[in-house]
Protein 1
Amino acid sequence: MEEAAAAAVGKRGRLGHHHGAADPPSFRMEDLPTEVQPVIISPLPLKEAVRTSIVSRSWRMLWTFHSDLCFDGPTPNDLDSDTDDEFAGQDTTKMNRAKFIETVNSVIQQHSGIGINKFSVRWGMHKEYSDHLDRWIGFAASSKANIIDFNLKKTYQPFEFHHFPLEALDSQGCSFVKSLFLASVSTKPNSVISGFTILRRLVLEFVKILGDFPGLLAKCSGLEDLEIIACYGVDNLIVPHKLDKLQHLLIAGMDTQMVEFHATDLAHFEYKGRVIPIVLHGCSKLEKATMKFNGTKALAHAFTAVPSILPVKTLHLQAFISKYAQLQKLPTRQQGMFLHLRHMICQLIVNSNDPNGDNGVLQLANCLDVAPRLETLHLHMLCAISSSFSSGEVAGMRRHDHLKTVFMSGFRCYKAQIELACCILRNASVLEQLIIEPRITDKVWAGDCSKWNTDLGEILPGVCEWAHVTSERFGKVITVVGASLNTTEASLAQQGAGSLQHHH
């Protein structure tokens, strides 16, 4: 007992020495300079910053200097869902919207309005809430937020959209907005607006544009990223002014007659829509293009309709191929060649009652002829129906001396797929391996693709057998993704010996 008591006294002595008066004082937030305290709390989400401010009286007002005010509501799917109890009924939705509006108003009333970096509102808002929306836009403008994001969702009809006054962000010609995202609103650019000289990113999605849009872009001399998605009101997207700092341009779902831009620094161009004249002036630095044309000749149009994309190193194509699509010969003259193209991704949806009778996929063989220095090809195919296995004759294609890797997903041994694969195997002199995957993946196609993959058990044996035979025929490695260990990476024919090795 005496030994235990002595040990306890010794332990208390050591603790007392450890926490003695000579120890430095503990850190306290209020000891920091006033201007530094909000910086410490800013990385927290707004809700957590408010909760943290309750810890101490001296912290109580710290959240009012938070730099990012982001208010996110449920998605339109949540609002319409019958399975989500919180948003199942219309009255419940109105109640939650009222709470959302009350929260936003309370925050902006108490916030200092100083040092705002981002102001974001994302929830479907009816035009009847215009007073609140105008108040929030006014706060974002008066606080000079660098990033402004107003996404009112696609919950309501276009004629009910709230008008977003761009002139409210002008601030008498003084620039402060660096990034502007608008969705499901209407707006009317005019020549009076001049305060967008430091704007770096502009995204317009489902926006009704009523005014002089090219004139607005002329004021955005520092613009680097421009995305225009499903907007309307612009008949011709012709911008005569030079946007010398523009690096990324996305145009999708637009009902325009022509696209014309002057962008000497453009590195990535994306277009999704119908075939229209597209002119990109001075785009010598263009490295990547993403093209999706509507119509049965979409694949060929991607290689011929936009001469400005010839310098690209990476090309991403999306196309629909309908029944009896006609093969098209592409120009093979020097000025029509993709001489710098190294990597290509191609997504094809084949809409045909009989994929074995459809030759649209073989258009790709002609397309490869204009890319003589291609190194990697990723081809993803979705045929809307199933069919029996078939074999076909090898289609013609020029020799490729740089193509090393080819990956084909959705490969079900349809006739056109086999012909294209054999085409590549025969003419790609340095090909290291052909990878085929019968499965259609969610990573490639939007939505649930599981319904297309229910018959993999029946398809895999035939695909593996084809890979085995074809590997011997051409002396190339053919890997079947998703096969069992004894058939995966089916074959490698020995050069000159003709024997087959299995890789596990």
Protein 2
Amino acid sequence: MRFKCVSKLWLCTIEDPNFVAMHLKHSTLGGTNWYILLTDWYFSRDQRSSLYPQKSLTLASQSEIEVPFISPKGYYGVVGSCNGLICFAETNAEDRIQRIFLWNLFTRKHKAILSSLPDYPFVDMYAAHMVLGFGYSDRIDDYKVVRITYFPDKYGRYLGEIDPKVDVYSLCTNLWQTVEFNFKCELSHFSRVSFNGNLHWLSMGIDEDRRRSFRSIITFGIAGEVFNEMALPKNCFIGITYNRAYLAELNSSLALLINRRDLIGRSYEKCYIWVMTKYGMPDSWTKLHTLDLNEGVSRFHGFTRSGELLMQTYQHELISWDPSVGLTRLLQKLGRFDLVTMVESLVFP
């Protein structure tokens, strides 16, 4: 970025869309251009996050990155990252305002998107449940933010009488618009993946025993702005009394992580890794690995480019699992944090 001040010609070249696309393609293929950003849920006064090269997740390789738009009093969540752009969201239920930021930390440029929260008569916004997603489609060369808001009915149910409201923001048009959502399910905000031009969430419903259970994968086509449903592996939850599930991307395939837990002391945990070998074909789901986890895993953060699975323990430590190495402790005592994987790019937000 230091070369942008050399001359106007160099500046025009670096910001040319063709050059940006060529640089992104080169960065994506290179193993040294991938990074991991750790953002604490509650920013300190210096408004900084920690950046690590993917190949060296140690304190010695840590870089402190200033987040320019962060307020020390605010709560910000990471929505996702695509092509080097990171999407942050801050929600103020009291003022019914949401601020979304698209940030390229490599060019130090960001864009703020301010919008009013969706409203529903006689419903307290503090009780509303919001699910977000951020993705890109090369078909239309556009980045979009999806916001799905669930309003509780008079019985406190999110799958009751009130249908969710879906708003979609387009970076190209700089506009929000409403999109139909015709599925009677609740999407998990812990698991969202942008992959193959679609956004993916795990959906949950109420089974015959009136318990919440995972039902399917809901996809959103970024180009066509249409929701669809995709089946989970058959019988993947049978025999599991208590579990959590997450979506991820592994080696250019959609992956499903199922964490089986024992409620008595959390003494026994297994993780099953499923991969959809042919995208869009549920019959191609294949169980790839079964992990014995004795660490007590509270959250999965997805895979690195080299295939390492990053996980967070109940002691707020970051650990990884590699098929050839096994479990490795990386970083200790991080507090509550979001983790996002990104590639170095010149994409302008």
Protein 3
Amino acid sequence: MAVQFKKTKKLIEEDKHQNKINDRMLTCFAKTERREDTVSENAAMDETSGDDLFDVIIIGAGIMGSCAAYEAAKLGKKVLLLEQFDLLHHLGSSHGESRTIRATYSAPHYPPMVIESSRLWEEAQTEAGYRVLTKTTHFDIGPADNPSLQSIIHNCSTNSLALKVFDTDSQLAEQFSDAFRLPVGWLSVSTSLGGVIKPTKAVSMFQSLAIRHGATVRDRTEVAEIKRDGIDIIRVSTADGRQFRGIKCVLTVGAWSRKLIKSITGLELPIQPLHALVWYWKIKDGFEASMSAAGGFPTFAYFGEPQLYGTPSMEFPGLIKISLVSGWPCDPDRRDWTIGGGDESEVMRQAADNIELVMPGRIETARGPVMTQACMYSMTPDEDYVIDFLGGEFGKDVVVAGGFSGHGFKMGPVVGRILSEMAIHGEAETAVRIGVDMKVFGMGRFEKNPKGNI
């Protein structure tokens, strides 16, 4: 009993000692919180005063805005990156578990951009010290007379991009361990430039790198107005009354591009927000390893109806991502998160049939996808990007970039550099160097033809 009493007394003394430590820690935390509140209040006052003058104000902190902030900050410019929601939110187009990178495009201006972007992805990862891109091969499959596939083959040759063309089932089976089947009259193309990007992680990486180079980042900052302030200053006002001044401004607000640009200039830019669905399907037992990136499974695009794209099994064990390259028109501020527009069941059935056509017996298609996630695209009628100066009273002091979704995330690093160059130097030097004519991305194309480059 005496021994037990001594142990109990010792435990009580230890508890008292720990409680003193806890009290000191709580007091310290309270003081820290009060200091942080004071700093936050002072920072808010500084922001509202508008005394700071930034070289570049970038509105929209998705992949394009974050890459642009990084590139401008690397040049030693004073950069402000604004985001209307929390950083790394899931309300736009720059989030989720995977995006693909590929250079197989039917339009000639995209392959050189992807090749350059691939190099810049590697540079950014090296600087960050970790990877957001897993390299794979890329695979395209469709009817042999499909114009897009024929153009892809031509553009790969033009850009010295090594490719393999398969027009027999035996060739294809040898390349991908029987994962794919080639229907009669179809062909497929394989290139080494492919891969899977982790989007949220990638956006975070570029924001961190931008901050490392001196950029200022502010989230929960909804822009309400952009106006000229004298001859050389752009004044950005927020919904909560703050104001920021910059010499140049870049707009990368994704699905909100149409609304923001119309509020600034009255111009109706045809960038349509689309509610998109991301599907994950169950892989049948025994095929999980062979359909992973480590097992050599590629990123792929299916040029049938409906058009599909997919990634190796990476994000969720036993599941593979195969989704539509399309969506349903929506208002980015009034999305229906539960449906795809009313006809998604029929499109899902068609997708299941197409999966069985080219990957028979590998995926459980009868019950449809086992997981569905909502995303949002913003696309132009011709599916080409908008990268241009706003013009009018803003001249070359405001740069607009939008309409990237569906095939834009992979281009983030090269587009970010181009936007930075346009804002700071007044021209896209990188585009000139890699042989891309920026006229194809101009806003004026819709004045001549509502469908743009089509």
Protein 4
Amino acid sequence: MAQIQVQHQAPVSGPNGVAPGAAGGAQFMLTSLYVGDLDVTVTDEQLYQLFSQVAPVASVRVCRDLASGRSLGYGYVNYNNLRDAARAMDLLNFTPLNNKPIRVMYSQRDPSLRKTGTANIFIKNLDKSIDHKALHDTFSSFGNILSCKISTDSFGQSKGYGFVQFDNEESAQNAIDKLNGMLINDKQVYVGHFLRKQERETALNKAKFNNVYVKNLSKSTTDEDLKTIFGEYGEITSAVVMRDADGKSKCFGFVNFENADDAAKAVEALNGKKFDDKEWYVGKAQKKSEREHELKAQFEQTMKEAADKSQGANLYIKNLDDSIGDETLKELFSEFGNITSCKVMRDPSGISKGSGFVAFSTPEEASRALAEMNGKMVVSKPLYVAVAQRKEERRARLQAQFSQMRPIIPSVAPRMPMYPAGAPGLGQQFLYGQAPPAMLPPQASFGYQQQLLPGMRPGGPPVPNFFVPMVQQGQQGQRPGGRRGAGAVQQTQQPMPMMQQQVSCMHVY
């Protein structure tokens, strides 16, 4: 087991081995444990045998895919009291099972805490020898840990970073203040608040930078020229013009400043200036992923602005004859106003798709064209004309229309009873001659018994109507006028396939 060479205080714990705050704020089931990082070969029986060594286990479940039956890599273990659950989590966390360490934590049914990332911290530049347990032991001195994990590759090797989530922000901040920049196994680590991808990208855009990118340079520009021009704004550590294998300039380069404020001043002063009849672009040096994200955001913003500007002035036309082209379409609609663009949509081979767009300068002109041209016969085909919508708007409108059009069909059908309040509870039987509930049409030919859901006791409250009565094969129904006082028909209870899995396996940590 890897050891982390950092001095830290004794772990904080409360009565019964449960850390303070484990039940406060977050909604935890203190007798139910979540077991993650399971090997796909681990079975319910193996999980039961491992956890029953600590205390009697109420139930276990390895969650599996409903279609394939393959393990999802996590499961649940339920104890009868919180003392046993706390002891099992303390003793069995990171225990190898089928040669893979498991991760044990309290079952957290409310996903809001996980999704918001509250009190979650990120650790990077970790030594590859540090594993889950070593990380957990180090950070447990700052408070109660809900989840602790080292990110690994497909071979189980550490990627050099991990995550620790505490039950409160104070513990997380304390860990950041004490350990950020510390040497752990001779490597200086970064410890900070966890940020989701979108938040990280926003932070990157606002972050200061020292490295400046310059493009559109002339062929004659040298490294010394860059140092001279950019040196006026601050101390430069390096300046280079990028060249190909033959030594020819690629017409772009990089300048690195010692101070981030100097880099910002250089960008502001030199971006757009002309040198040797070339207008320079000067900006923050970015990674490829950052550039792609920025360009995508700019494109989406441009498209949105264009759509907002032409809102109500752009018309969608379909049911066009194949002979109609851009010019013919423009002639058809030009009488209603000034047309800014007109296009018939075509496939790659140039054949008309039978649809197109006509954009007017004002929404009023488009409204007149819509009123006059919708339904008009053009080359023996009636045109369909409507205001053009973006894909997202069209999908939302169609979904709203579909939900309004769906008929409400009663779910009561023969052999599928719905039990109203006051109806016999689970496990009770209906006798021949006994009137069924009012919501179920009388059926003289079948006696039936409700199916019992695992974990529910007989005589309990009614449940939803997904319990279908199962009639034993070959059973004869009662004929009209049959003997009175006949006993209840005994039936073999049929199992409810997949039901237990659907009830228990709801989320992944």
